[in-house]
Amino acid sequence: MSSKTSLKNSVIDWSSTIDMIDNVRIDELGVKERTSSLATRSIKRDSKLEGLKKIVSMCDLTTLEGEDTEGKIAQMSSKAMTPDPSDADVPNAAAVCVYPSLVSTAKNIVRDSNVKVASVSSYFPSGQAPLESKIVDTQFAINEGADEIDIVINRKAFFEGDFRKVYDEIVSLKEICGDIHLKTILEVGELETYENIKKASLIALSAGSDFIKTSTGKISSGASREACLVMARAVREFADSGYGVKGIKVAGGIRDSKDAIRYLVIINEELGVEWLTPEYFRFGASSLLDDVLKQIKKLKTNSYQSSYYFPRG
Amino acid sequence: MNNWEYSESIESEKIVNIEKKYGNFIDGKFVTPKSKQYIDTISPSTEKILSSISIGNQQDVDYAVASAKEGLKKWSKTNPSERAKYLFKLARLIQERSREFAVLESLDGGKPIKESRDFDLPQVAQNFFYYAGWADKLDIAWGNEQYKPYGVVGQIIPWNFPLLMLSWKVAPALATGNTVVLKPAETTPLTALLFAELCEEVGLPDGVFNLVTGDGSTGSHLVNHKDIKKIAFTGSTGVGKYIQKSLAGKDVGLTLELGGKAANIVYSDAALDEAVEGVVNGIFFNQGHVCCAGSRLLVQEDIEEKFIKKLEKRMQTLNVGNPLDKNTDVGAINSKDQLDKIEKLVNEGVADGGDLFQIECELPKNGFWFKPSLFTSVQANYKIATEEIFGPVLTTLTFRTPEEAVEIANNTEYGLSAGIWTEKGSKILWTADRLEAGVIWANTFNKFDPASPFGGYKESGFGREGGRHGLLSYLKVSS
Amino acid sequence: MTDIKKTYKNYVHGKFVRSESGKVYSIDLKEEKYEIPLTSKKDLRDAVTSSKEGFKNWNQLTMYNRSQILYRLSEMIEGNKDSYISLLQDHGLSKLDSKNDINHAIDTIVWYAGLVDKWEQLTGNLNPVAGEYFNISHQEAIGVTFTLSPNSMSLNKLVKAILPALTVGCSVINFSDKNAVIALKLSEDVNNSDFPSGSLNLLSGKFENIVEDVGGHVEIKHTAIYEDISKKSKEVLGQKGSESVKRISLLPSTSGLSSILPFIETKTVWHPKGK
Questions:
Q1: Cβ–Cβ of A240/B309 closer than 8 Å?
Q2: Does B124 lie in the same domain as B33?
Q3: From the CA atom positions of chain C, what is the Rg in Å?
Q4: What CA dihedral angle connects B398, B399, B404 and B406, to 10 degrees?
């Protein structure tokens, strides 16, 4: 992990990137078997409580709807700062994730806390716009005060075989971001094969992304544990090559604690416990947090909870 | 915050009910052994005594064989579709009581509950289910020749997969119309004894399944009994050779499933992360107490360094400890004797000049344990490269070309299994054609299915278990 | 005097449904009188839609799993044996004949249950081609299959019209006329045996009402009939079926390996061997 500061923002050149991509070989069944074997881990008692608290601290509370208003964002932001007002032991969430036009609203509320504001950009969720427009979109979010930017890869270019274009666009957007945390969404549900997911992961990492993220949450197929495993192995390969330590965000369809813990197990065993911090692993979710809070209460009080004990987010 | 150890998650032992002392199961009931000799069976993870079992002597074996002979009269007249139904019912009962069996297996043998629960028991039930289906289809299994059961069959099974090996032996034997005298290993008899209770429960006719516990001497009485028409043995090559010699010149059928020293060949164009998983599973599954374990890693020279690094990192994530903890990946070594044998070979490997990597982990104070281990810088003539270790120890050799890989892989008296890792299909088939092994896994390892035949080439034995071919181990062409 | 008639429904996609037409026909037995749905063309189309999904569902399961489900059906029938026996007696069979028929039906199902994970070991093989190729022929289920029930009062004959196609992985639409009460009774046990929705649909009615649509429906890949249907129906089925090269066969008369052969396709795969 020693190389993380020096290499964090560097871009890996295209020819090294192509070398990595050419060597991508994945056995689908092998990935599935490993994933289902990790799902049998039985996480109980102390390790469960510890895991659940980690999950809270890794949550990017997200709302990405046309109907979002300042009022809704205010509520969510305040919940991110103090997810469970009745229990000081429960940490704050990592960030709130919103559309660019709502960044300043969120920022105003979380300004003095540890909670970051993440904004989607680059014509989320389709990414079907010229690079210039994506740059404008991203620049706007940054100007509004975003701490983190979530962009989407150019799937059109990816499927047309123009990997270079996918890479170049991310490089350009990272340039604008500078030190601002860049998360690149692969949309694994569209990529379909594990080899595609790994290739896209490596392109995004090489191009300077700080995080790779599974999904937009806007198509029916969101994050999967298998995709997370493949992405974790891409991150591992990247780190083992001395290219830097990067993070993963899983988003889309993770609704309960049990599922979220299984993601933690994958990261723990494939990457290592060093990755189990909000700096390197995040959950993008809207309804997950409530279930996690309920489970924490349940572990501490030994009785099942109702969601009306917790503030709306 | 940078620490996330999994808390203990122990499967309760309360579900099992172990008697203080067990007799034999003969003629449809538990009987007091005539030998009056007993031996303790202990839990290898705690060294606690679980129960006492009898060491069957000549008289006990005589009684069991006589009962099987008597049972044959009825069994051979039982309609094949009725035979099928008994086996189907056994499969169902095993499914219903699988948690109990799994806990017992892990207690008695030391294997992780994860494996006994998710591998052994489902396979056992499926195996009875599968062979049940053949019982009324022997007429279409192997063409028009007249196949007949042998009659009374003696079966001797090992301690590494106690109940699974029982199912591999008993299900096809009964499906084809034979009756059985079974001897389980002396360190792991408890699940076989519980199985005998199920036979009683489904009302299997008396004498069809008989069980005599004991050690090598008991096995020897069984092998040499004049009324035994066929012996099926799974165990070491040494004992296999002894049995074959004992039966020389006699009209007794024999199938042997013996040792192995399988090569797991990793080509540089393999999906390496999946290959690492396969190699780990190939050798550390069931503490390496697997006759088909991928105990020789053959890795292509240009990726050796990268691959070993990945492998060591992955090995370090293995959880070693209490077999009843649901998060345990590697359990206890089955016995003190076996542990001594592993330690001796590993010490010799180090003395010979091999580089030994062992994972960092704490081992429990009591019980028999060995850290998952990896040897590199090994020469082909080292003992650890040729002898079956039967423990969690992997030996690495390198090769430059496919021809060389095949040559090294075949450079052994064994021929049970082999693994091939490459994303190139034609290379899999080319390599598989040339490997002298009864089972070859490509881009996977240690996969078993009742529908798939298993058994060895060369000194790994002869005969097949599983699949349509497995029927032939219990049928002979009638003249 | 009014007869109280017992009503049976079609069994489609795991649900008991009336004919959309609302039409019924009667089967009068010794003790009871039954109203039976008269399947319409629309009902048939619905059943095919269900069977198409059912084919997918049924094929997603492992052979072992399918085998267990068929075995489960035999267990269910075993558990309800007495009610089947009295139903057959109501159809005019003697008690002994009824009992024998049910026992045979159970044996038939158990036999096929055991074949599910074995038939391909008997029908598939490697082909020794001259050259460095791996060449294997293996078999797959043909798809949505329509089978007619023989018009005889026998559970055993009925299951023989259903099981061979199910065994190899086809989804089955079985159509009964005079023996519909037995078929629709069977549907109750089918419903309790974990069959995925649409893998087995049981309809009743008059074949001549729908024969043209059975022949013409492209999604029905195979139709198995019995010898005794009218010459006209046979012709219509054959002519309409020819438009989509539909497989049409006679229902197998015995259970044996040959009984499944009409319901499978052979696929041959070539692959080179080399370094």
A1: yes
A2: yes
A3: 19
A4: 60
Q: How far apart are CA C104 and CA C85, in angstroms?
A: 12
- Mean pLDDT of successive 10-residue stretches along chain B, which has 479 residues: 83 96 98 97 98 98 98 96 97 98 98 98 98 95 86 98 98 98 98 98 98 98 98 97 97 97 98 98 98 97 98 97 98 98 98 98 97 97 97 98 98 98 98 98 98 97 97 90
* Chains in contact with C, where contact requires at least 3 CB pairs less than 8 Å apart: B
Domain edges within chain C: 5-272
Residue pair B94/B124 in contact (Cβ under 8 Å)? The answer is: yes
Query: What domain range is B246 assigned to?
Result: 13-258+458-477
Number of domains present in the structure of chain B: 2
Mutation target among A1, A4, A22, A25 for the B interface, most CBs of B within 10 A: A25
Inter-chain touch C273–B429, beta carbons under 8 Å: yes
Check the CA dihedral C176-C181-C184-C185 and report its sign.
negative
B83 and B216 assigned to the same domain: yes
* Contact of B385 with B397, CB cutoff 8 Å: yes
Coil vs helix vs strand at B148: strand
| CATH node for A4-300 | 3.20.20.70
Burial of C230 (0-12, 13-18, 19+ CB in 10 A): exposed
- For domain C5-272, the CATH superfamily is Aldehyde Dehydrogenase; Chain A, domain 1 (3.40.605.10)
CB contact under 8 A, A30 and B1: no
Query: Closest approach of chain A CAs to the CA of B257, in angstroms?
Result: 28
CA distance B243 to A99: 77
Task: Say if residues B350 and B377 touch (Cβ distance below 8 Å).
Answer: no
Q: Do chain A and chain C touch with ≥3 beta carbon pairs under 8 Å?
A: no
Q: Which parts of chain A have pLDDT scores under 50? A: 1-8
Q: Is B307 in a helix, a strand, or coil?
A: helix
* B in contact with C (at least 3 C-beta pairs within 8 A): yes
CA distance B107 to B321: 13
Which residues neighbour A275 within 8 Å (Cβ) at sequence distance 6 or greater?
A232, A235, A247, A248, A267, A268, A281
User: In chain B, what residues touch C104 (CB-CB under 8 Å)?
Assistant: none
Exposed, middle or buried, B200 (CB in 10 Å: 0-12/13-18/19+)?
A: middle
Chain length of chain A: 313
Q: Best interface-test mutation with B: which of C116, C121, C271 has the largest number of B CBs within 10 A?
A: C121
Q: Are residues B211 and B352 in the same domain?
A: no
φ/ψ region of A213 (left if φ > 0, alpha if ψ in -120 to 50, else beta) reads beta
> Does residue B141 sit in the same domain as residue B58?
yes
Looking at the structure, tell me whether residues B426 and B473 fall in a common domain.
no
Q: What local confidence, expressed as pLDDT, does residue A2 receive?
A: 39
Nearest-angstrom CA–CA distance, C10 and C36: 8
* Residue for token pair 């692993």: A281
Instruction: For residue B329, give the chain A residue with the closest CA.
Output: A41
pLDDT at position C227 is 86
Q: Nearest CB to B277: which of A30, A43, A274? A: A30
B114 and B127 part of one domain: yes
Residue B472 sits in the same domain as residue B432 = no
Domain residues of chain A, as ranges? 4-300
pTM of this prediction?
0.95
> Looking at residue C3, what is its pLDDT?
60
| Burial status of residue B158 (CB atoms within 10 A of its CB: 0-12, 13-18, 19 or more) | buried
CATH number of the domain where residue B343 is located = 3.40.309.10
Of B136, B140, B433, the CB nearest to C273: B433
- Sequence-ordered list of residues with C-beta below 8 angstroms from that of A124, at least 6 positions apart, any chain: A64, A99, A150, A151, A152, A185, A216
pLDDT tens figures, C176-211: 999 999 999 999 999 999 999 999 999 999 999 999
